[in-house]
Amino acid sequence: MNDSHSHGEGDGATIEVLYVGPLADELAAGLPSEEAVSFRTASRSEDGIDAIGPEIDCVVAGHDPPAVDARRFLDQLRADDREQPFILYGPRVRAGVVEEILASGGDYLCSDSDTTARSVLGVRIRTTVESERTRTDLERKSRAMNQAPVGITIGDATVDDEPLVYVNDQFERLTGYDRSAVLGRNCRFLQGAGTDEETVDRLRAAIENQEPVSVELLNYRADGTPFWNQLDIAPVRDDGEVTHYFGFQKDVTERKSLEEALQQQTELQDRFASVVSHDLRNPLTIAEGHLEIARENRDDEDLSAVADALDRMDGIIDGVLKIARQGVAIEDPERLDLAAIAREAGASVGIQPEIDEELPSVEGDPERVRTLFENLLRNSKDHAGETPTVRVGLYDGGFYVEDDGLGIPQDDRESVFEWGVTTADDGTGYGLAVVRTIARAHGWEVSVTDGRTGGARFEFAVDARPSVGS
Asked: What domains can you pick out in the chain, each with its CATH number?
């Protein structure tokens, strides 16, 4: 193998070339001086194989069997996982040889005209190597993007509706969608029934104003599973014009669950303080006053008022403790048969509800779900008569419990779930608060509407949002 020959400084990015074939020195010396090419040479295929290292940018080979068989030489390079560009350079090479070289990803340049061919060879080497370097750089960046721990999307800002032109592997894993199913579509297909419209409007406004934006959005995977998506979008400009939007997406469901659980815990603490300072203080004051009068007058009626006040305090404490316990995150949910649990709850309350046997099977805590049904059934008994007709059935998105009583006025349908709110003279107002607490601990949402016969209907959306353990 001969020493290297350098030609020119160029832009400092010298191209390292290995030439394998006859007349190596003459070929290297004949290249134009402005070409920043450094040659290493070998006269036989075996020497060429030994000479190739990672620093070689391009391989140029003649075809002069048996010393150098360009076809076998290229096959050996590829078998050794050497991916450098390959150029066959020589005079009057047989068509079959050229075809095989081209079919293997190589290139061919005829050297019949020495001066012109050598000048063209220098240009061909440079353009080939620069193209390969660009391709390698793009592949490296693509691998880095595909290995990124966040979903990455690129939307085309030059086309209406900013369709996606790229998504990385993590985006596929995060959403469950294949590339073929999402390219050409706007990323809004991830939105669903629970996605907040105000957040969507903020996102849309930022894109229309060509501004970066960061939001947390409830999205849905291909199988319908909801997840909280931390979405960051940034415009990419070329000469001042926005050409693309880069999107970065991260599943933050667990963090949101912890945040909401903490918020629920804070609300519980605030409620405890309110109950202790107000709800319990009033009956305690009543009890103290009547007890003082009873001591003076030995009046049984006053003592009865004390007993009633103490009973109310006991009911309030019991309700508050139930809410505290039922709001704890569900750590080991079980697959539940809602129909069976509703039947058990009816037996404990003394009501036989009409139960749809096609009720969905859900994940949850059996004791808490039975408490939920018991509180609803007691509520019906308190407000719809001693023997109400209660139905437990299936509706799109979850299940319902309804009775044939007078129902709940429209203006009171949200307040009935608040702590201490009741329309019954002897009620504590914590039964329906417990119901909502249990529902939220399972990731469900409960709402009130009219039953089929005018009574109260409580609907539970079991797939309204991810469970946050609150």
From this structure: 2-143 (3.40.50.2300), 151-251 (3.30.450.20), 257-461 (3.30.565.10)
